[in-house]
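Subject line: Sequence and fold of a protein, written as structure tokens
Body of memo: The sequence and its backbone structure tokens, given next.
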Amino acid sequence: MKYIVGIDEVGRGSVAGPVTVGMCVLKKQKMAENLLFKIKDSKQLTKNQREIWFLKLQEAEKNKIIFCSTSFISSEIIDTKGIVYALSKATENVLKKINFCTDDDLYVLLDGTLSAPSIYRQKSIIKGDQKEISISAASVYAKVKRDLFMDNLSTEYKNYSLNQNKGYGTKDHIKAIKKYGLSKMHRKTFCSRF
């Protein structure tokens, strides 16, 4: 085992926009551990703290200490194939982005009930985003990337305040759905209860 890979998802419970799987590979493990030892799960950080960590992750990536990436699966695929399929596909896709080693060189740590394709040595860890820095880093990376994506969507779908709710079913978002109907970015299967 040469590289530790952390994987986490964001947007699973959102009613609009993609689900996103983030990945952080510790390429230089000791240096990465020293750099990231205070990182936390994205849900335990403020927006400002996440953005500061994101910049640190980008700098570490530039210095080849880590490698980060994301995979987005659309609301349309979530509606047609389900959230479990979407998460599996996103996990598979993000792992395919590792091009500097063989699959045998990886040990994949995943948050919660996520799993990788069976070709990978792996371990799913309940609350892994609070226990493993590689998963915490993947959580932060995925959250910031998805938030930026939702901010951009907000300019196209102005009625839904996606830049504020990030696609989650807040009171104001549900009110907007009832007023304006569903956009093509909404997960129809998730919105059927409104």
Remarks:
- The CA atoms of residues 159 and 171 lie 14 Å apart.
- The chain has one domain: 3-149.
